[in-house]
Design goal:
heterodimer; A: 421 residues; alpha/beta; Spore Coat Polysaccharide Biosynthesis Protein SpsA, Chain A; 8-stranded mixed β-sheet; 57% helix; globular; B: 215 residues; alpha+beta; Methane Monooxygenase Hydroxylase, Chain G, domain 1; Glutaredoxin; 4-stranded mixed β-sheet; 5 strands; 69% helix; elongated
Chain lengths: 421, 215
């Protein structure tokens, strides 16, 4: 029996893929929904604002309409908006609905994170929520999250995030991404291994935030950074399938690419800053498996994208060459091409890929039910899966490849400073 | 909380799934290999009967009937050879884990191709047929881009020309018949073509050049 080197690499990646899918399916079936809690502490929701006149009513409205018996305080911090945001917030303040902090003069913003950290100092409750102004929560989100804080070890609770009214092709592709990543995070949180938060309604324990030095201003991804800081102090990050936040996603390719550059840059710089968590027994399943898996998938997706591109270019090159050397006999070329396309390539790798695909589709079916995707949303995402796995993951791979250049442009961040506490 | 036991269970399930895929792939590969072996056996049976018939014709000195009969058999065999060629190429390209028997099968395959070419040459001379034979040498042990290109050109030419018989053989195959041909025709490199048993063309020859040469 003989196998070439590239096939061995492909088999290793295939095994890794199967292991990941089986792991998440196993955790899914092992999971038991948390019982409803009577713990109803006061919650302070911080909303950092910069030119969000079109979104404020929805964001604030979703907090005001929470089905929650505990006290909810809303703190909006304006970072120097030049649109009608300040007027809208002043109106809410006048009615006694929110606390409004005018952090900076119009046109002079100093950053979202400083707004959040300022809000922390003004919050009266122990449970703090962060809600981006272009996002909103479902009615029982807070009710379904606060119960987790009965466990003193819990430092944060994250809701599932869904895409708000996806319209174009790119937004609909992101529905798939958000469905998968949010559910994977929920499942990972069941194993005590979640290390990431986000700005769409995550709740934090104030004491835990103060212990880790609050939010880091000089990072590309403050949500990942705060998650790792909490994890390093052995705080747990939990998640809830029943708490749902909605957010707007980029709808143009260049904006998606810019977002991915920021996310990957943040992943790389935070992985470097928190490198002592990786493969560290002290952090259990998170240190030994989840963190390395998360980083490894960046490398694997680049490898797959590069291999696919290499094969595509190679096939294109040979097709063009064959047309030329057969003296542009299009009939002969197209006939041969059709014959080769009709052939079903069945070997060990394709069989394993097929098994992985079936397992993945089953997993996606289960999680799309869990996050209550409508029938239309679920059907659309199934139809778009081939595009997701080719175009979208290809775009992500491009972002990963460009990230070192992006980080260098930002001043070579990981190599200059250490942001661990 | 996930613990070691969870990962052990996941490892066992994943390994079972993975090995199922590998086993299924290997079984399929074995089936493909058996099919190729069977076709080679059928081809060899064909060649045996053609060679026996040629011997009989020589013994009886009856070339007229035997030329017609043998030509028909060789044309049938041509189709078998093309199908066998396509199957072998498919196996070579698709199977990622190659069976140990494959080397032996390749040897037998090259051997029957060489026999086929010899019979074509014999019949051409004996029956004064006006078809053209090309014994095409390519190599596989080292990269040979020109061999690939020449193969495409020859496939194209033969698809448009039923009187052109192209027989490819692997230059690197360790077979006595191939070594003898290489020695006889002083072949040192690939791609190389022996046309009608006497003309030798070495290096990549374009479709136009080859057509002009054959005409």
């Amino acid at each position: 029996m003989y196998i070439d080197f590239l096939t061995i690499i492909s088999l290793i990646i295939s095994y890794f893929t199967i292991y990941s899918i089986v792991y998440f399916l196993y955790i899914y079936f092992k999971h038991k929904d948390r019982e409803h809690s009577l713990f109803h502490p006061g919650v302070s929701i911080i909303i950092p604002v910069l030119n969000e006149e079109g979104n404020l009513h929805k964001a604030i409205g979703s907090i005001l309409s929470q089905e929650y018996s505990g006290d909810i305080e809303v703190i909006a911090i304006d970072d120097g908006s030049t649109d009608k945001s300040r007027a809208i917030l002043s109106d809410y303040e006048r009615k006694g609905i929110i606390k409004f902090i005018r952090k900076n003069k119009p046109g002079h913003p100093s950053g979202k994170i400083s707004s959040i950290n300022l809000g922390l100092t003004k919050a009266k409750h122990e449970i703090i929520g962060v809600l981006d102004a272009d996002s909103y929560l479902n009615n029982d989100a807070i009710k379904n999250m606060v119960g987790e804080f009965e466990n003193k070890k819990v430092g944060a609770v994250v809701p599932i995030t869904k895409v708000h009214k996806p319209r174009n092709f790119l937004e609909k592709l992101q529905v798939i991404e958000y469905t998968m990543s949010m559910c994977v995070r929920k499942l990972v949180s069941n194993t005590g291994s979640l290390f990431m938060t986000h700005g769409v309604g995550t709740l934090f324990r104030k004491k835990a935030l103060k212990e880790v030095g609050c939010f880091e201003e000089n990072t590309l991804t403050e949500d990942l950074n705060i998650g790792l800081k909490l994890a390093k102090k052995s705080y747990l990050i939990k998640s809830s399938f029943k708490a749902i936040g909605y957010t707007v996603v980029p709808n143009k390719t260049k904006h998606v690419l810019k977002q991915r550059l920021r996310w990957t840059g943040g992943l790389f710089e935070n992985s470097y800053w928190f490198k002592d968590l990786f493969f560290n027994k002290k952090y259990g399943n998170m240190g030994l498996f989840v963190l390395p898996l998360n980083l490894a998938w960046s490398g694997i997706s680049v490898y797959i994208a590069v291999m696919w591109l290499k094969d595509f270019i190679k096939n294109l090159y040979y097709d063009l060459k064959d047309i030329i050397i057969t003296n542009f006999d299009w009939g002969y070329f197209l006939n041969n091409k059709l014959e080769s396309l009709m052939k079903i390539n069945v070997n060990e790798l394709t069989i394993i890929s097929l098994i992985s695909l079936i397992m993945f589709l089953s997993f996606y079916f289960l999680i799309s039910k869990k996050v209550k995707l409508t029938f239309k949303e679920a059907l659309t995402s199934y139809l778009l899966l081939p595009f997701y796995f080719t175009l979208f993951l290809g775009l992500n791979a491009i972002a990963i490849i460009l990230t070192p250049i992006y980080l260098k442009q930002k001043g070579g961040r990981p190599w200059l400073t250490d942001k661990t506490t | 909380m996930a613990n070691r036991q969870d990962h052990v269970i996941v490892f066992i399930i994943s390994t079972l799934v993975f090995l199922t895929g590998i086993f299924a792939g290997l079984s399929l590969s074995r089936v493909k290999m058996s099919d190729i072996e069977q076709r080679i056996n059928d081809f060899e049976d064909n060649m045996n009967s053609i060679e026996l018939s040629a011997l009989l014709s020589d013994a009886l000195n009856n070339e007229t009937i035997s030329c017609k009969f043998l030509q028909g058999k060789l044309n049938e065999t041509r189709v078998l050879l093309e199908e066998l060629g396509a199957q072998t190429v498919e196996y070579e390209e698709q199977s990622k884990i190659k069976n140990d028997d494959y080397k032996q099968v390749k040897k037998e395959y090259n051997s029957v191709r060489a026999r086929y070419w010899l019979m074509l040459e014999k019949l051409k001379n004996q029956c004064e047929n006006n078809y053209t034979t090309i014994l095409f040498f390519y190599r596989t042990l080292t990269p040979c881009e020109e061999c690939r290109d020449q193969g495409v050109i020859l496939s194209h030419l033969s698809s448009n020309n039923p009187n052109l018989y192209v027989v490819p053989v692997d230059y690197d195959e360790e077979l006595l018949i191939i070594d003898m041909i290489k020695e006889l025709y002083q072949l040192n490199n690939t791609p190389a073509m022996i046309i009608n048993g006497y003309s030798i063309l070495a290096g990549l020859i374009s479709g136009e050049e080859l057509s002009a040469w054959l005409n």
